[in-house]
Amino acid sequence: MNQTVAIVTGGGSGIGLAITEKFVQHNITTVIVGRDPEKLHQAKQKLGSLCVPIVADLSDLEAIPSLVKQVITQFGHIDILVNNAGINMKKDFIEVTNEDFLKVIQTNLVAVFALTREVVKAMLPNKKGSIINISSMAAQYGIPKVIAYSASKTAIEGMTRAMATELSPQGIRINCIAPGFIATDMTSKAFNADAERKNKAMGRTPMGVMGTPGDIGDAALFLATESSRYITGVVLPVDGGNSIGF
């Protein structure tokens, strides 16, 4: 039995780390890609030999093909890709510069496209693969002060559907997870500084609580494996009902 190999971008912390943890628990060799060597090292210490860190900045598009080549050289194939790495920027609409906008689009959208393209090239000969994109509530409804982020995540959902239609006939499934409000260091900081935003978020979440990174990990494991073999092109909100709440 061939060892299953996954790549998780932004795998060193938060949601990416939780996804990696679920994969490793299910005996999936998981390459975690990130910019912070220390975070990646800590993840490896925690998760053991099935967790393989590679330090890379995905916004450097020219370096992506050699990154994928490195994984193929080491493991022979790639079965799963989780596009989790992303950046956000909170600014009033009229304050966002062209450079600001492009920086978010480059990391959250163009890098996802470029990495996925290279991974798909490696998956096609094997006629199988599962790709999971990570969207956001910012693609489900309008959130102020995150214009570039909203644009990038809405585009990710459109790209998921287009890729699924084109690639599923060749055995590659593409799906997307739209996390709701998940308790990570990043959200805790944002919410603790802004009680009104926190009350608003929880007020429209029917389950009334924040999710955990592990909730996203469980959804990713489902979409990555044979359990979801007849599912492609979906955007799965994992949000306690936030996207349908009032």
TrEMBL record:
A Pfam family annotated for this UniProt entry: adh_short_C2
Cited InterPro entries: NAD(P)-bd_dom_sf, Sc_DH/Rdtase_CS, SDR_fam
GO molecular function: oxidoreductase activity, acting on the CH-OH group of donors, NAD or NADP as acceptor
Superkingdom field: Bacteria
The family this protein is said to belong to: Belongs to the short-chain dehydrogenases/reductases (SDR) family.
PANTHER family: SHORT-CHAIN DEHYDROGENASES/REDUCTASES FAMILY MEMBER (PTHR42760)
Name by which UniProt lists this protein: 3-oxoacyl-ACP reductase
Organism per entry: Niastella yeongjuensis
